[in-house]
Give the backbone structure.
Amino acid sequence: MKIANELLQEIIEGSTRLMVPKKSLTEKVPPMEPAFFNPKAKLNRDFSILAYAALLKDFQGPKIFLEGLSGVGSRGLRVANETEIEKVIINDLNPSALELAKESANLNKIENIEFYEKEVCRFFSHYSKKGRRGTIVDIDPFGSPAPFFDCGIRATMHGGLLSVAATDLQVLNGLFQNACKRKYGGIPIRAEYGNEIAIRLIMGCLRMVAARLGVTVNPLFVESDMHYYRVFVEVQNKPDQDENIGFAIHCKNCGHREYSVEHKQNCATCKSEVKIGGPLWIGKMFEKKFIKKMLEETSGRELHKNCQKTLEKCLLESEMSGSYFTLDEIAKKLKMSPPKLENIIANLQENKYTASVTSLNSTGFRTNARMDEIIKIFQTS
């Protein structure tokens, strides 16, 4: 499956040399042939490197990376080259993609890597027995990752990290509610904070699959970008006893929102009928200690400029409960220009509420204040 050299180009991402199809760098939509590579996903891969490096730093036990849908191997090769991994095992059904991955491995003189050409779940099933599981398991498909949750969890060792990405944003954001219910077991709500609801639907589905297998998944870090959502969870070999599955309750009339284990019918603020999303994850999405470790790993690396800023926001919101609000939605409700984000947060804190920015929206903020209380603060800002 040799690809002609004139069709390829060598690039450097992070500190890793990669052979990629030229057209993937020049065309608006990267082509599938001869192999898929998305240069815009560098930010995604940068966050992955930080998360994986943070886990591996203090991990006791074998350090093995499994990737089920590797494409040209950009993520797996960076893991091999830029983290303290012992072995990288990547898999893809496209032999041309694997050929490019092998060329890139030679460019970087990487020897602790193996290549497989199998269907994803067959690949993961090969590593689902005790003693063969991965320390880090990565799932990055076109569309929904839900079909691979079962085999991905089974292939992740106790204390290991499972990372999954979703690109079926229209489904998760509420455009095709029945499709979302079929794939993720829950219904989304079309709202200003729809990306958070989408991430919680992914997490909820992961948790319910894990519960059937008798294991626990704990969120460490989540990421939202224009073209994908990604969640990073720790897998522990013990049953999940926490009440972390529930519903998103959203009032279209006044804008009140909450996450609840109960299936409520009326708004707690204005008593109007509410929209209900879920079942979905209602627990925390960020682990503070893990975010701090990721921030420590940013030093001395070639990373996207947004990585550190995003992680600093994650750190601020890591212990905040509830959903976020946006300046625009409240300003629109009040028919006024949006105030400065830092002023609103400061005013909320001065009024004894908790408040912080959020990594999920550039004009968003988290607070324990109700919508009517937020409106009063907006009107006096």
Remarks:
- Residues 320-381 form a domain with the Phenylalanyl-tRNA Synthetase; Chain B, domain 1 fold (CATH 3.30.56.70).
- The longest strand covers residues 156-166.
- Residues 124 and 267 are 45 Å apart (CA to CA).
- The chain is about 35% helix and 25% strand.
